[in-house]
Amino acid sequence: MIRGLGLDVCEISRMEKLAGNERFLKRYFSENEISYIRTKGGTAAQTMAGIYAAKEAFSKALGTGITFDLREIGVFHDEAGMPAYSLSGKAEELGGGDRFLLSITHDGGIAAAVCVREDSH
Questions:
Q1: 33-42 pLDDT, tens digit each
Q2: Is the predicted pLDDT of residue 47 greater than 80, yes or no?
Q3: Identified catalytic residue from 26, 40, 55, 60
Q4: What is the CATH number assigned to the segment(s) 2-118?
Q5: Looking at residues 9-21, what average pLDDT do you find?
Q6: Domain ranges of the chain
């Protein structure tokens, strides 16, 4: 059963301006995410925007807003490139063991992410 739905968008140009800002990166992205972003070369800002939107979409699907460190919402991609969440800390606790599905897209200078929260019980 679906318990929550979150959607967020992020301007890629905003992330282009912040891509070299180490303070920003370390505040909002995990070390694994930063490493992944750095492998993207010319599409790094697009990747940053998608991950950032995914974190916001998660908090909206959760229904709490951002009441925890955004680095507790890890976004990774499996071998086929499908994005998924890796939760820790308060984000994991608030998730209550539920399943969170993620889709990320980019077009027209915007990255968008949708998160669906499914009841695990």
A1: 999 999 999 9
A2: yes
A3: 60
A4: 3.90.470.20
A5: 96
A6: 2-118
Whole-number pLDDT of residue 82:
94
Report the side by side order of strands in the sheet with 110-118. 2-11, 110-118, 99-107
For the segment 63-87, the average pLDDT, to the nearest whole number, is 92
The catalytic residue among 17, 90, 106, 121 is 106
Helix (H) or strand (E) holding 87: strand 83-87
* 121 catalytic per annotation: no
- DSSP characters for 31-76? HHHHHHHHTTGGGHHHHHHHHHHHHHHHHHHHTS-S-S-GGGEEEE
Q: Which residues share a beta bridge with 74? A: 86
pLDDT recorded at residue 17: 95
Against a cut of 0.90, is the pTM above it?
A: yes
Q: Which residues pair with 102 in a beta bridge?
A: 115
- pLDDT, position 75: 97
Residue 106 is a catalytic residue: yes
Q: Cβ neighbours of residue 36 under 8 Å, at least 6 residues apart?
A: 47, 76, 77
